Amino acid sequence: MRRLFVSYLSGGLALLAATINPALAADVAAGKEKAEMCVGCHGDNGISQTENIPSLAGQPDQFIQWQLVFFRAGTRKNEQMQPIVEQLNNEDIRNLGAYFSSLTPPKGPKDDDPDLSEKGKQAAAGRRCASCHTDSYAGTKAVARIAGQREEYLVKALHDYKSSARSGGGMAAMADVAYPLSDEEITALAHYLAHL
């Protein structure tokens, strides 16, 4: 019991030291420099122009960090991401999180199908998406920003959660939300969120 207490105490002290020690603070400029390797897929200033590749601009810092950790650990799998995350150390991950969260998020395009958006809005309310992603769907802490995200990427992500192809921090919550969604609801929800 004492050994367990000492272990928790030393872990807590290490976390406290990391919080207080400015040497461990994130460096946005270093994150911007490291993010040069992300531009090819995730776009300039973190706004993707590539199908099924998410925009990273404006994502919450902790969300970016956790996703990179999940990729690096192999919990989340992607052939393009694996060789990149293997090169990242913890400081790189902190810096990338700080950098991408500092960027202006993408603004959704003009809505070309307001009826579909209304159905998506109803699906979002019915699935209580705002309870995790916030009322503006801007995300918070380790929860993704989904407002203004690429529409086809949102469709893919929801299908991946529904089929359990994607796991990560919110896996249980997202599986519960996505599993009962019909293809029509997924399409409407993605359309609504992408156009916010």
Structure commentary:
This protein has 196 residues and is mostly helical. The protein is 56% helix and 0% strand. The chain is built from eleven helices and no strands. Helix 4 packs antiparallel against helix 6, helix 7 crosses helix 11 and helix 9 packs antiparallel against helix 11. The longest helix is centred in the first third of the chain and has 19 residues.
Number of discrete helical segments: 11
Number of domains: 2
CATH superfamily of the largest domain: Cytochrome c-like domain
User: CATH fold name of the largest domain, please?
Assistant: Cytochrome Bc1 Complex, Chain D, domain 2
Approximate strand percentage: under 5%
Helix-and-strand structural type = mainly alpha
Order of helices and strands: HHHHHHHHHHH
Coarse shape = globular
State the helical fraction: 55-70%
- Class of the largest domain, according to the CATH hierarchy? Mainly Alpha
Average pLDDT works out at 89
Termini Cα gap? 52 Å
Number of strands: 0
Supply Rg: 18 Å
CATH architecture of the largest domain: Orthogonal Bundle
Largest sheet: none
Instruction: Pick out the low-confidence regions.
Output: 1-22
